[in-house]
Design brief:
17% helix, 10-stranded mixed sheet
């Protein structure tokens, strides 16, 4: 029987910090140094770790990495999902577009490195307050050790932003990693929507993104975050998202995976006070040799909290999807109402699904359910559409698009939903 090492490998010989980094406060440089030490001490993912069960561990190994270099900005069109109240474009971690409209008084919407350098004490209070614990701690530590870039949004009490904030990430370079970070804070009764997209500049270079996102929703506030991953077929992405929902607040996170050779999504969600609600939706269209690995945690810390998770996967060719999810109802969190569902549509006999939903309940009078289903497109559905003059290939595409679009149906904004559904339809042009 072969053995597998769990010791660290030298992915990088030194912290991925650029020489032109702005002067940062002492608390942040200490955080960077501690992150680098933690990265070096943590083992690489191994088969003995339950959090990496069923994953293709070869795809999570990196012999050597070199930080992404400066690159010329491509000709970028704004994402066509309706009017944006602010727009940012990053190429290999450097801002090429930063357009902020006439935002309400008190709103902060700026690159996160600038916010840290300015000494924003509110940012410091919310920065990286929740330890990552779904298996990607080593990747989170590497993100923390790197030169920071990305977006910081702070919305004060009672302010509702019209339109979404658009963040477009472009990656170029052979296995050159980028380390984006998003931090969103919504105070009492505030509302904000953010749409982030990831794309490759070139079709052949295998890029790598290791990203972190944190969302903090205070009493009665609403945060919507949509992540669209559409990298080229050689690239990899690790994205770690954490949400903390306060009293009567709502956090909705949506992930749409279309591109990439290997993608690992982790979503940790904490309902901290009565009335807190979290919604996690995912739509993934995989073909060729793609692997999408999704891990989620719904933690109910208080009474009368709710959460809903729906992930839908459509698989073709020899693609693989892994889902591992847990609903955790902690002691005293009575009257919790929580759901978790992973549904898979298999368009090939060689496609593979591994689903592991779970419950851990330590309270009374709760309503929790979880489940996973897998199956092929019904012959009756295809026959019904063909009987109305629709060719078989088009019929399968219609059924598959409708299957995935259900996971996007609760996204706020009809233009945004239409845009996401259009991206799915476009990806089907690559599916045989």
């Amino acid at each position: 029987m072969s053995t597998e090492t769990t010791t660290n490998t030298a992915w990088l010989s030194s912290p991925p910090v650029k020489g032109d980094q702005q002067d940062m406060p002492e608390w942040y440089t200490a955080f960077q140094a501690a992150s680098w030490e933690r990265f070096q001490s943590l083992p690489v993912p191994s088969r003995s770790d339950e959090a990496w069960r069923y994953a293709d561990l070869k795809k999570s190994r990196f012999e050597t990495l070199q930080p992404a270099q400066s690159a010329t900005a491509p000709s970028v069109e704004p994402a066509a999902f309706g009017e944006a109240c602010a727009r940012f474009v990053y190429v290999n971690g450097e801002a090429s577009v930063a357009e902020v409209g006439d935002l309400p008084a008190g709103v902060v919407c700026q690159p996160i490195d600038q916010a840290i350098a300015s000494g924003d004490e509110r940012l410091k209070a919310y920065f990286d307050v929740e330890a990552k614990r779904l298996g990607d701690e080593k990747f989170a530590a590497l993100n923390g050790a790197a030169s920071i870039y990305g977006l910081y949004v702070y919305v004060p009490k009672g302010v509702e932003l019209s339109g979404s904030i658009s963040v477009q990430h472009y990656i170029t370079g052979d296995s050159a990693p980028v380390f984006p970070r998003t931090l969103v804070v919504a105070e009492d009764n505030a509302r904000v929507s953010i749409v982030e997209t990831y794309e490759s500049v070139d079709s052949d270079e295998p890029g790598l993104s290791i990203g972190v996102a944190d969302f903090h929703a205070d009493r009665g506030s609403q945060i919507q975050h949509v992540l669209v991953q559409n990298l080229n077929e050689h690239s990899k992405q690790v994205h770690l998202a954490t949400s903390r929902s306060g009293r009567d607040s709502n956090v909705q996170t949506v992930v749409l995976n279309l591109g990439g050779a290997w993608v690992r999504n982790e979503s940790l969600n904490y309902m901290l006070d009565s009335g807190a609600d979290t919604q996690i939706f995912g739509a993934n269209l995989a073909n060729s040799h793609q692997e999408f690995d999704q891990r989620t945690l719904q933690v109910h810390d208080a009474q009368h909290t709710t959460s809903d998770l729906l992930i839908k996967n459509a698989l073709y060719d020899t693609s693989r999807v892994i889902f591992g999810g847990l609903i955790q109802v902690r002691p005293g969190a009575h009257h919790t109402d929580s759901y978790q569902s992973c549904r898979n549509l298999l368009g090939s006999d060689q496609a593979e699904v591994n689903a592991m939903p779970g419950l851990e309940i330590d309270a009374d009078q709760v309503k929790c359910s979880h489940g996973a289903t897998s199956g092929q497109i019904s012959d009756d559905e295809i026959f019904y559409l063909r009987s109305r003059g629709i060719p078989a290939d088009d019929a399968r595409r219609i059924v598959s698009c409708g299957f995935l679009n259900e996971a996007l149906s609760k996204v706020t904004g009809s233009d945004l939903r239409d845009w996401l559904e259009g991206l799915i339809a476009k990806k089907f042009d690559q599916v045989s």
